[in-house]
Write a structure and sequence with these properties.
By secondary structure, the protein is mainly beta. The chain has one domain: Porin (Beta Barrel). 3% of the residues lie in helices and 60% in strands. The chain has 2 helices and 12 strands, in the order αβββββββββββαβ. It has a 12-stranded antiparallel β-barrel with strand order 1-2-3-4-5-6-7-8-9-10-11-12. The longest helix has 4 residues. The radius of gyration is 16 Å and the shape is globular.
């Protein structure tokens, strides 16, 4: 239930956003929101060759059908601090995801990349999700658009991924995503509920097709969800 941090970030391309929410660690977003009246905090370390990014993304759903995410990242490259990143996003649903059914929504926001200064991109995307086998397998698809302010170019963004529940607490994820130009990214990982519904940890490995050795990354994250306030 997270932001597509990374169609906003990794697909910009970088690691994030966010991401934004398909639950961490997925980049491809889902047609779900944080529970009405609740908040969540997603934080993770993203390691890409000589660069390290530490992301913190809090999100709240105060009224029931609108989730607001605002956060950012600290970035380090070659041991030196770089300019960070920020992301602000709103998300709503036209149809919530039902068990053995489908859901659809809309998210829009603005994101900058680590090391890019204040140059960022406004974006939007449509998350469409499908539930199979009583929620044991959920498929997510995203289609969207971002405007690169620095280059003044408009890009089509897309993503498709799945999450498979293997035990009561453990999920396996796999996905691919990208833009209308360039090689696509892929990512696979695990997420595990330490306290179901409230505390989750995750880890991922990802890269870009055609550049697997050069563009690979690892991440480890923590997700905290409050009770309804």
């Amino acid at each position: 239930m997270k932001i597509m941090l990374s169609l906003s970030l990794l697909a910009l391309p970088i690691a994030f956003a966010a991401p934004a929410q398909a639950a961490r660690p997925m980049i491809t977003d889902d047609a779900r929101l944080t529970d009405a009246g609740a908040c969540q905090m997603e934080t993770w370390l993203h390691s890409h060759r000589e660069q390290r990014d530490l992301w913190v993304l809090p999100a709240c759903n105060p009224g029931g059908n609108f989730e607001l995410t605002f956060g950012g990242a600290w970035a380090y490259a070659d041991g030196q601090k770089q300019s960070g990143a920020m992301l602000v996003q709103g998300k709503t649903l036209f149809k919530p995801l039902d068990t053995n059914g489908w859901g659809i929504g809309l998210a829009a926001g603005y994101a900058t990349q680590p090391g890019s200064g204040q140059s960022g991109s406004p974006y939007f995307y449509i998350p469409l999700s499908f539930s199979l086998a009583d929620d044991q397998l959920i498929i997510h698809t995203n289609l969207g658009n971002l405007r690169e302010r620095k280059t003044q170019k408009t890009r089509l963004t897309w993503g498709i991924g799945g999450e498979l529940q293997t035990t009561d607490r453990l999920y396996v994820i796999a996905e691919t995503y990208g833009q209308d130009q360039g090689n696509a990214f892929f990512q696979t990982g695990l997420r595990y509920w330490l306290l179901p519904g409230h505390i989750q940890i995750d880890t991922t490995y990802g890269s870009r097709f055609g550049h697997i050795q050069d563009d690979r990354w690892f991440s480890i994250g923590l997700r905290l969800i409050t009770p309804r306030l």
